[in-house]
Amino acid sequence: MEALFTTQILKYKGDESFVCDDTLVREIKLEIYINGEKVGALMATPVDEQALAVGYLMSENIIAKASDIESIETKDEGMSVHIKAKIDKENLAKLNAEAVVISGCGRAHTANIDPDAIKASKIISNVKFHKDEILKQMSMFYTQCELYEKTGCVHTAKLFVDEKTFFIGEDIAQHNTIDKALGKARLAGINLEKCFLMVSGRLSSEMVAKAIMHKIPALISRTAPTCLGVMIARKFDLTLCGFARENKINIYSGEARIYG
């Protein structure tokens, strides 16, 4: 299924009105199956569906690493992803029993909300990022996001590896963008411990938890974090930066990794 849809609209420009074509982004319910069992459904944009499913399952610690995946298949005209893999059955049961509807756009569940219940270790990374490099990458961010450029209707995420290597995730749901970008990187065998992740929206608890589960040392946004997002970041020593635009950046935790 195509991610974009064209329809006719009536448009006003000043005192003039006219009919023209407009490009919209599609929204689907993507069902995820693991070893034949449906584990959930995400409201999503129909692009990078397999990466989204992998990123989501790894964010929930149901799949530990890409090498545990035996096969991935998209079915039902792109409406479902079926994965065969070695899984953590305890974490799958936890997702089914304790899942919370998260605050991002769309409707999805996570078991990683309570800071005391997140099964992760502190991020141990001596990597450092120059503030000017972060601001440079943030300034280029939206120009590299095709669906955003065409519709202005999606959230975006970008995992920066180096000047030649990065992974983009675009979706109507903000949390899905992280799963897509990180799913692509994990399937490509990238070591995430020297990367930083940029997102277009707020730094809420579930966004922070996803970065921690993938052991990414730094998460950056143009906008603000929530109180719970900051609390989780500080507990697990994630470098959390907000309002990164023009020549400004606010660092809420893990400031030792930023220099300049």
Set down the secondary structure blueprint.
Layout: E1 4-13, E2 16-25, E3 28-34, E4 37-44, H1 49-59, E5 69-75, E6 80-85, H2 89-98, E7 100-101, E8 109-110, E9 129-130, H3 131-140, H4 146-151, E10 155-162, E11 165-171, H5 174-187, E12 196-199, H6 205-213, E13 218-221, H7 227-235, E14 239-245, E15 248-253, E16 258-259
Parallel strand pairs: 3-6, 9-16, 12-13, 13-14
Antiparallel strand pairs: 1-2, 3-4, 5-6, 7-8, 10-11, 10-12, 14-15
Helix pairs in contact: 1-5, 5-6, 6-7
Description:
The chain is an alpha/beta fold. Helices cover 27% and strands 35% of the residues. It has seven helices and 16 strands. Strands 11-10-12-13-14-15 form a six-stranded mixed beta sheet. Strands 4-3-6-5 form a four-stranded mixed beta sheet. The longest helix is centred in the C-terminal third of the chain and has 14 residues, at 174-187. The chain is globular and about 60 Å long. Residues 100-107 have low confidence and may be disordered.
On the 0-100 scale, what is the average pLDDT?
88
- Oligomer status: single chain
Task: Kindly estimate the percentage of residues that lie in beta strands according to DSSP.
Answer: 35-45%
Unreliable parts: 100-107
Query: What is the number of strand segments?
Result: 16
- Helix/strand structural class: alpha/beta
Task: State the order of secondary-structure elements, H for helix, E for strand.
Answer: EEEEHEEHEEEHHEEHEHEHEEE
Report Rg.
19 Å
Largest sheet: 6 strands, mixed
Overall spatial form: globular
Q: How much helical structure, as a percent, in the residues? A: 25-40%
